[in-house]
Amino acid sequence: MIVGYSLAFTPGSPYIGSLDRLFLNGMSFMKDANKITVSHLAPTIPESVYMAFQMTFAIITPALIAGGFADRMKFSAMLWFMGLWSVLIYSTVAHMMWESTSGYFATMGILDFAGGTVVHINSGIAALVCALVLGKRVGTARTQCRRTT
Question: Own/partner pairs for 107-113, CB < 8 Å, 24+ apart?
C-alpha cells in the first residue's frame, strides 16, 4: 500500500510506475469542495476504493505462494520474502498488465480480466521456484519413515 500501489498503478515506464502516490500522497478528499481523487484507471469511483480493491489482489497473491514453501521456511524469512516479492515482482507484473496507459502488455492489447496472469500465473511460478530452491521438507512423517527403514 505504501509503495506498491504507486509502482503498479501510476503511469511510468512500460515495466514499472512512478512514485507519484508514494505513501498515498495526493489521494485526498476535500469535503468542503466535494472533490475526491480518482484513478485514471477507474474514473467513476474514489481512488481510495480502487486502491483497497487492488490491495485485495496484492494480499491474496503471496498467500497463494505460501503453499509452495509451507513448513520449509522460517516465519521471519517468509515475511521478508513476501514484502520484497510484493514490491519488486507483483508491482511490476501488475503494472505491465493493468496499467492501460503505459504497461508493457496492456499497451499491446493483452487483457487480464480476473487476475489470471497477475495473481495466478505469477503466484504459481513463484511457489514453484520457492519449492525448488528450498528443497524437500525435513522432519515430516514420510521422510522419517524412509530413514528408519
Answer: 107/14
What pTM does this model have? 0.85
Residues near 73 by beta carbon (within 8 Å), at least 6 away in sequence: 81, 130, 134
Instruction: Report the CATH number that the domain containing residue 141 is assigned in CATH.
Output: 1.10.3430.10
Q: What is the chain's mean pLDDT, rounded?
A: 87
> Where in the sequence is the domain holding 54, given as residue range(s)?
4-148
Q: Give the SS3 label for residue 30.
A: strand
Number of other residues whose CB lies within 10 A of the CB of residue 98: 20
Average pLDDT over residues 16-33: 84
CB 97 within 8 A of CB 117: yes
What is the residue type of 92?
A: T
